[in-house]
Amino acid sequence: MFSGRNLSFCAIGAAVLTSVFLAGVFVARPAIAQPMPIGGMGSVLDIGDEPGRISTEETVISDGPFARQMVFFRTTEAPGTVIIHTSERFLYIVQPKNRALRYGIGVGRDGFQWSGLVRISRKAEWPDWTPPAEMIQRQPYLPRFMAGGPGNPMGARALYLGETVYRIHGTNQPETIGSAVSSGCFRLANGDVIDLYARIPLGTKVVVRHGASI
Amino acid sequence: MSTEARAFAGVLFALTISFASAVSAGTLDTVRQRGTLACGVNQGLFGFAERNDKGVWSGFDVDFCRAVAAASLGDPDKVSFVPLSAAERFDALREGKIDLLSRNSTWTLEREADLSVLFAGITYHDGQSFMVMRKPDVTSALELDGSKVCVQTGTTSQANLADFFRANSMKYEERPFPTPADALKGLADGQCDVLTADQSALYAMRLELKKPSEAVILPDVISKEPLGPVTRADDPAWFNVVKWVNFALVNAEEVGVTSQNATEASGSTKPDVRRLVGVEGGLGKKLGLDDAWALRAVKSVGNYAEVYERNVGTKSRLGIPRGLNQLWSMGGILYAPPLR
Amino acid sequence: MTLSSKIVWPGAAAAVVLAATLAGCADTRQEGGTLMPGTMASAPPPFPQDKLLGNWGIASYRDEKDRKRTEAQARSQCKLPYTISRGPTDGIMMHVADDPQIHELKLKGAPGGKAYIGFEGPPGDPQDREVISFTENVIVMRFVDPDANSRYGTFVYVRCPA
């Protein structure tokens, strides 16, 4: 089953794909998963959106390197800034005195498409999900809109990045944290995205960085 | 000059000139004649130098040996590992028993001045840190005022501990223990709230706890313990080879060359990538190597990030955050001079 | 015309099924016997199958509180409609869960005014959809398979303007 699950739910639906930039992203990108510039740090898990897998609000990464923790982090960005290192699979909230609160993330194909600087433009609890058109094409039985809830692949919270289709969101597949996955943007375990959501106000600056590519 | 010709020249050189001691011969030529790199490593340190039951070595320091072998001999497996105690390591190097010491050794003035050795850079920035049980939810070393601190007696950690608390006008009660294992037990038993030791050691000790996730290692580092490879002071050419292998691995991470894409990197149009993999610049020859030296090193062990994550980072049980050992542009202080 | 939205859990018929199996009763067509796991006896469909034909906007929800806005969302999804057309042998062309292939399905009635959509056979099969409510322009249904149901939620179909 799920023969056509390699597609993203990063996009929030055809209706928003009006700008040239966004249209470019979707037109230029083939519908099939392709090798990503992930700096050779592990292979891509063929994991797509599995609507309905259940992960509760309590699910956090509590052990191992991808557990939420305070780390040394030297930056000129102001405390409170969010920095995402896609090749490392970490999201940092900058703290004073060369420190940052670090979360393990899963990075989807769309998360590697773009880097730059944006602000959190919207926050949502148990966000709704609008599968992108190409996903509907491959999985015609999908609803065109899915109200938020524990089975929704967007997970418990979403933080929307500027005017882009990119977002930081939860997941119903916490085991994918720390991996490159074939769909989604920047996903955290539900308990961790809830923690992040409480710390990050609207308007927070977000810097997304990839490793260099040859 | 081809590798063979160079080796032959080395043989001639060795035959025709007499030396005060074997160690003053060019180490690179000696290594080539012998066909293996003699690399001094720790006798057993989790994540840095370990030997499995089949006798195969692995670890952060071990990989550095392999990278140097790949660059200088063309084969990462042409290494004879020499396990050394802390006491014998520098003598072994000076006496020529090893060509290179890659054994979690701290770079200090005294060692370079007194021991006729040179540190060829820093591969790992370690430093003294603190481990607390998660319950008090301490996130900074500055919140440790009034703590009971477990520490191994007779170590620099004990002195650093005193300095740190005094400098920050904080009080503490010291709980000294003769061994690291005893100090750890002290923390687990609740005899102290905090355990202090070098950060890399704390991550290894945490794995010994019944529930490692209950202990938190604070991000603060209160001392400098820069670890790096060491060569004899009388061979600047070999010193350069070792030094630039380290820089090449760091630069490889910075420009995005990995063990996976190293081959296709030769087709890159980016000048810094092309110089690294040796299709431009002729840099290897300036080191007495061939131009694919760095490409081979990266292909063999990966770039700095790959070496780090595999041995002590996210892909190892230690799971030590990159911290200081992250690139200067990504939150750490790793900075390698350019390959040009 | 509205059907009752009574919930029938697959487990509810388990005792019956077990008894039937022990009795060696294997004829699924036998009148009055509920004989495949979860399935039930047939009855005339409570509404004509042709009422399902056409273009629909579809959306899903899990929590009853989301039902109203899900219906509104379904209405706005007519730009990407789900089309149900007539099949070659008297059925309707639709998908089942987790299969991108289109199939000819049937509207199947069951006792108590219930309705299912699925392959030819007794109603209530795990591959069926259960019709929870039906009006001319809004249909609510869900997958009978509990796993598919929990993953995709309850679907609202809203008829798109011609």
From TrEMBL, chain B:
Domain spans labelled Solute-binding protein family 3/N-terminal: 36-265
Q: Does the keyword Signal apply?
A: yes
Q: Which Pfam families match?
A: SBP_bac_3
Keywords (alphabetical) are: Signal, Transport
Protein's GO biological process:
amino acid transport
N-terminal signal peptide: 1-22
UniProt record similarity statement: Belongs to the bacterial solute-binding protein 3 family.
What is the name of this protein? Answer: Amino acid ABC transporter substrate-binding protein
What is the species of this protein? Answer: Blastochloris sulfoviridis
From TrEMBL, chain C:
What domain of life does the native source organism fall in? Bacteria
PROSITE patterns, A to Z:
PROKAR_LIPOPROTEIN (PS51257)
Q: Which UniProt keywords apply?
A: Signal
According to the UniProt entry, where is the signal peptide? 1-25
Keyword check for Signal, yes or no: yes
What is the protein named?
Answer: Lipoprotein
Q: Which organism is it from?
A: Blastochloris sulfoviridis
